[in-house]
Design a protein that fits this description.
The chain is 21% helix and 27% strand. By secondary structure, it is of the alpha+beta class.
Length: 613
């Protein structure tokens, strides 16, 4: 690029307004505690429920041994944000039979917790005898409501440059298996886009300086994006990390592959690079196509490990980047802060209100709990028009954590997706494949990796959970739930498909990761009653297809342990492990009782059952 060409480009910093907006400060409101706290004592669990508080993004449950305290947040070992977005909480972390005092605080912003409300005492019931029964009654004749599916828009991935790799991990090809995993979530689950780090990292060679002048090369970006588009996915363009020749401090890096985390040495050249990339993508893939993509500014800059500059410098990066994207076409979608632990959302909204930078969506990340409800935050800043994209989410923020390989993590996925339905636009599980090497390549088959699919291409329980969700219909039917753990420990989604068939998904889950291998005291027996099936009244016995997901069905970690798999399977063990790659269904006859079709089944914790009629 010549100096004359640079001079012809937009002065990005001149686009940024320096006005302040005192009407929209970042300080969150002071919220009262929720009213109406009730407790339901059940076997090995206590269920708390309360009334919603206007303006709250979540709630933080506290517990004490004495009414006067001291109260501490209930820690379900998620390793990240402990606040929950719903107006209920199931506590399984206490000792059965021990009385505890519970109190709940409103959370207006993830770093702020309000005062505690009045405390209520409860003790879980010591397990004894058969599992308690939960009754679920589905009205199949009800008109229902449209089912929002937050798992469809997006999935996470290792950096896409790995699609070009011909190297092996555990004797398995990295690039082709990564692509196959992404293809599988596209074809079998219906996921529409993939988000990954490091599209500007030097292993794709997008930027260098020759004789002091910028030079661009997007050929390798084309290669990986062509591959993604070729399997029916769209890329989410996360704009980072910093190219070495443009970095103010190229020695500041993250991950084993050395992503550079420093601000640019030249803001104008950064903006020029962003604009050149976006313009290239529009020219290669068409404006109509790229208008359906998202451009996300950086990754988790609120953590020092990902951004060596200040918060003010990152806000400046956001401004320059957002203006550069919109300079190509004003209908392209740009947003952020792509933050860890739901941070910097208020700060970014307050900032762009003053800088004038465009923002089409808010993106952030949490782990270990369902995503917080950011709709009150957007409304407070007058930005209810912005979409909410949870561009990273998972059961734990910790790589090499055994919970990632467990059936419990699959129930976590189901619960989080249901909690998020209808209140955010995308919930992107992190990540599709265990071909993932931020902290080094996988040392063994089951290493607690983030992936939904192992090296070798075998589905983990979390992938199976997404697959079960993909079998649900487009219309949600009402369910009346009664019994010990109903609408808390035991959750359900009943749906009607376009062809009139029914799909009912029931699962048993606690956030308490100490119970990730199960707890017999939390097992339940479910009676599913189907109302409104008049069409079957005079037919032969009605049967349903039942598909199970639990430690005995679809949990590769349990199967591998039983087979005695070492670091990597033998050829014979690979074949045996593929038995866990699919969830077989079986036919079960329903019982007709007083006009209702009844199905009784055991539901272990953790465990899920899909019933298809």
């Amino acid at each position: 690029m010549s100096e004359q060409q640079l001079d012809a480009r937009t002065d990005w910093e001149a686009r940024i307004s320096r006005r302040s907006d005192t009407s929209r400060q970042a300080s969150p409101p002071v919220l009262p505690p929720p009213d109406g706290l009730t407790v339901e004592s059940g076997q090995a669990q206590v269920t708390l429920r309360w009334q919603p508080v206007e303006g709250a993004v979540g709630y933080l449950v506290h517990r004490a041994l004495l009414e006067q305290g001291p109260f501490e947040p209930v820690d379900h070992l998620g390793g990240d944000v402990l606040s929950v977005p719903d107006t209920w909480y199931v506590d399984t972390t206490g000792a059965p039979g021990q009385t505890y005092w519970y109190a709940v605080a409103s959370v207006p912003e993830v770093t702020v917790t309000g005062e505690l409300g009045s405390a209520v005492a409860a003790a879980s019931v010591v397990p004894a005898g058969p599992s308690p029964v939960v009754t679920l009654t589905v009205d199949a004749s009800a008109p229902g409501e449209a089912l929002e599916k937050p798992w469809i828009p997006m999935i996470g991935s290792e950096r896409l440059s790995q699609l070009r790799s011909t190297e092996l991990t555990g004797g398995r090809p990295i690039g082709s298996e990564l692509l196959a995993a992404l293809d599988r979530v596209s074809k079998e689950v219906g996921v529409e886009s993939v988000r990954a780090h490091a599209i500007l990292h030097d292993d794709l060679g997008v930027y260098r300086e020759v004789d002091g002048e910028p030079a661009y090369d997007f050929a390798r970006v084309d290669e990986v994006y062509d591959a993604i588009i070729g399997i029916g996915l769209r890329p989410v363009v996360e704009l980072g990390f910093m190219p070495r020749d443009l970095a103010s401090d190229p020695d500041r890096t993250v991950f084993q592959y050395g992503g550079i985390i420093s601000p640019p040495k030249d803001w104008q050249r950064w903006g020029d690079l962003v604009r050149a990339l976006v313009q290239h993508l529009v020219e290669r893939y068409s404006l109509d196509e790229v208008r359906g993509w998202e451009f996300e500014v950086w990754n988790e800059a609120n953590l020092e490990v990902f951004w060596s500059g200040t918060r003010e410098e990152w806000m400046h990066l956001y401004d320059v980047t957002a203006f550069a994207v919109k300079d190509v076409d004003p209908r392209l979608a740009v947003g952020g802060p792509s933050s860890a632990a739901a941070g910097w959302v208020d700060e970014l909204l307050a900032h762009v209100a003053g800088s004038g930078a465009p923002l089409d969506f808010v993106s952030t990340h949490t782990y270990g709990s369902a995503p917080l409800d950011l709709r009150p935050t957007l409304a407070r800043f007058g930005r209810s028009d912005a979409r909410i994209l949870w561009t990273e989410w998972g059961v734990t923020p910790t790589h090499f954590n055994p919970v990632n390989d467990s059936a419990s993590s699959a129930m976590f996925l189901l619960s989080g997706m249901k909690s998020s339905s209808g209140r955010l636009d995308a919930l992107s599980y992190w990540v599709a494949s265990d071909h993932f090497e931020e902290l080094g390549r996988p040392p063994r088959l089951l290493h607690g990796g983030f992936g939904l699919i192992t090296v070798g291409g075998i589905a983990k329980a979390r992938y199976h959970a997404l697959y079960l969700l993909a079998q649900l219909g487009d219309v949600e039917l009402p369910v009346v739930a009664l019994g010990d753990g109903a609408d808390g420990l035991v959750q359900s989604w009943a749906t009607c498909r376009e062809d009139g068939s029914l799909a009912v998904l029931v699962w048993n889950h606690t956030l308490d990761q100490a119970k990730c291998k199960g707890d017999a005291g939390l097992d339940r027996r479910v009676r599913l009653a189907l109302d409104g099936l008049a069409d079957f009244a005079d037919s032969d016995p009605v049967s349903v297809k039942v598909t199970r997901l639990d430690r005995d069905h679809g949990d590769i970690s349990v199967l591998a342990e039983r087979l005695g798999v070492g670091d990597w399977p033998t050829d014979e063990q690979w074949e045996q492990l593929r038995a866990a790659d699919v969830l077989p269904g079986f036919e079960v006859a329903l019982e007709l009782v007083d006009g209702q079709y009844i199905l009784d089944f055991e539901l272990p914790q953790p465990g899920a059952v899909l019933i298809e009629l």
